[in-house]
């Protein structure tokens, strides 16, 4: 049921970038309705100076359609744990009545970026310097995350909680002591797929293809590190510009003598890629093609899902989970924002902002809402472990670089079982305690993931190889 609602949400935008309309951009640039709501309601029922939080996501560009879902995730945590109430039908209308440790909470603005570092920093400066936010939650996309982490390093008196940006460098390389990520990075999301390709599908040689920027570099790096460590060979890497419409020249570069292809193309580009791949190479053989976190996105399944039946992907959420905590999380989104937003609940975009805000609230409670000396808040954030309904898909703790260690699920796209004509997703395995280093393959001293790195080298496998637990949810 989650998938059908999410399809309606995204399809209403017509394409991934369509929700980044001029009106949405203008509202976001002015803080939406949230600042006014906070001022009229005092931000909450408490007294004293408010805790000022800036929100940053994408309302334009390849991921613009996730602006409202990401806001809903952050808002839901405030609703559940800080007593907030929605200010309107849209999540970016803001919230009122939030208090933490008796102090009012004010969302100073819902910042609008466009998946570029320059725009993300422009909005970060507006929120942190002009609107005087104490804390930023965001951004969404990989290059944005690296830029914001570097900005954080220059502003130690402010605190930054990542939204869902998944580039590895944001925590592993930049190591800003005031930047925290309460979800796996892109490489961690790929954990288990190298093992699956080599040991289950029998791939000995593989190629990879992805968008040409930091998140796919990280996402595919996780596959390469794991797959090559246990004996696989990656013989070709193909990179296409983010948002490319004509993939014909890139498809022609994919060698035909490999056992399989790992795909890291995201956004609306993945739909174009699959359609054009079948035009050039024939029907997708899902025994010879795997995909990253975008593979089971509802819009992708609606448009090209029948071509992907049998295909496998991985991520930190599982829409078919039968956990009561997952059900309560989805119900919270439905109660406050309706079926369409609730349908986006299992999206990593929504969930990353939820866990980030839940962690922030937990740490703020521990310091009595004190943001005058943010070193205290940052020390508490580093100690937060999310459990139960604050992390419904599995516990989240941080390593010494303030990067999440958590679980990842392996999922297979299966034939439609609901009668809506759209394939479903079935979770079949769980990889536990995935850390960012992949058993030493990644460190502050290793080359950052890029077009050529990591190198494909045999070595000691990550500890989860061969240890994935079978999962069979009841839904």
UniProtKB/TrEMBL annotation:
Residues 50-414 form the Leucine-binding protein domain. InterPro entries: BCAA_transport, Leu-bd, Peripla_BP_I. Transmembrane segments: none annotated. It comes from Solirubrobacter pauli. This is Amino acid/amide ABC transporter substrate-binding protein (HAAT family). PANTHER family: LEUCINE-SPECIFIC-BINDING PROTEIN, PERIPLASMIC BINDING PROTEIN OF ABC TRANSPORTER FOR NATURAL AMINO ACIDS. Keywords: Signal. Residues 441-475 are annotated as: Disordered. Residues 448-458 have a biased composition (Basic and acidic residues). Belongs to the leucine-binding protein family. Residues 1-24 form the signal peptide. It comes from the Bacteria.
């Amino acid at each position: 049921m989650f998938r059908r609602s999410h399809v309606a949400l995204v399809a209403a935008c017509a394409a991934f970038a369509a929700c980044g309309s001029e009106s949405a951009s203008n509202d976001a640039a002015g803080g939406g309705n949230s600042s006014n709501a906070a001022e009229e309601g005092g931000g909450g029922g408490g007294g004293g100076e408010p805790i000022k939080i800036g929100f940053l996501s994408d309302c334009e560009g390849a991921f613009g359609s996730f602006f409202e879902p990401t806001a809903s995730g952050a808002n839901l945590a405030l609703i559940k744990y800080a007593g907030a109430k929605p200010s309107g039908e849209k999540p970016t209308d803001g919230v009122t009545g939030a208090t933490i440790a008796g102090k009012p909470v004010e969302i100073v603005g819902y910042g609008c970026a466009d998946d570029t570092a320059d725009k993300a920093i422009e909005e970060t400066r507006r929120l942190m310097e002009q609107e005087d936010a104490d804390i930023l939650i965001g951004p969404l996309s990989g290059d944005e995350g690296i830029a914001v982490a570097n900005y954080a390093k220059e502003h130690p008196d402010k605190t930054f909680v990542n939204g869902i940006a998944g580039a590895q460098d944001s925590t592993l390389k930049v190591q800003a002591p005031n930047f925290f990520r309460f979800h796996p990075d892109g490489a961690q999301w790929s954990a288990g797929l190298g093992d699956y390709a080599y040991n289950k599908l029998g791939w000995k040689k593989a190629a990879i293809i992805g968008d040409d920027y930091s998140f796919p570099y990280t996402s595919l790096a996780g596959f390469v590190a794991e797959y090559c460590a246990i004996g696989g060979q990656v013989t070709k890497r193909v990179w296409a510009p983010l948002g490319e419409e004509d993939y014909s020249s890139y498809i022609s570069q994919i060698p035909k003598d490999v056992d399989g292809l790992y795909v890291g193309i995201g956004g609306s580009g993945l739909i174009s890629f699959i359609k054009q791949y079948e035009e050039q190479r024939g029907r997708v053989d899902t025994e010879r093609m795997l995909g990253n976190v975008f593979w089971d996105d509802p819009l992708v399944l609606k448009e090209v899902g029948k071509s992907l039946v049998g295909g496998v992907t991985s991520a930190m959420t599982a829409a078919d989970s039968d956990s009561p905590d997952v059900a309560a999380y989805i119900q919270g989104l439905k109660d406050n924002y309706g079926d369409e937003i609730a349908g986006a609940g299992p999206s990593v975009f929504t969930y990353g902002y939820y866990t980030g805000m839940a962690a922030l609230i937990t740490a703020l409670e521990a310091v009595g809402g004190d943001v005058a000396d943010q070193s205290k808040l940052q020390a508490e954030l580093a100690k937060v472990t999310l459990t139960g309904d604050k992390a419904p898909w599995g516990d989240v703790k941080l390593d010494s670089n303030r990067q999440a260690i958590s679980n990842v699920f392996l999922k297979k796209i299966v034939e439609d079982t609901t009668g809506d004509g759209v394939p479903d997703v079935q979770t079949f395995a769980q990889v536990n305690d995935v850390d960012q280093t992949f058993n030493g393959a990644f460190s502050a001293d290793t080359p950052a993931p890029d077009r050529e790195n990591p190198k494909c080298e045999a070595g000691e496998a990550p500890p989860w190889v061969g240890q994935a637990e079978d999962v069979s949810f009841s839904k």
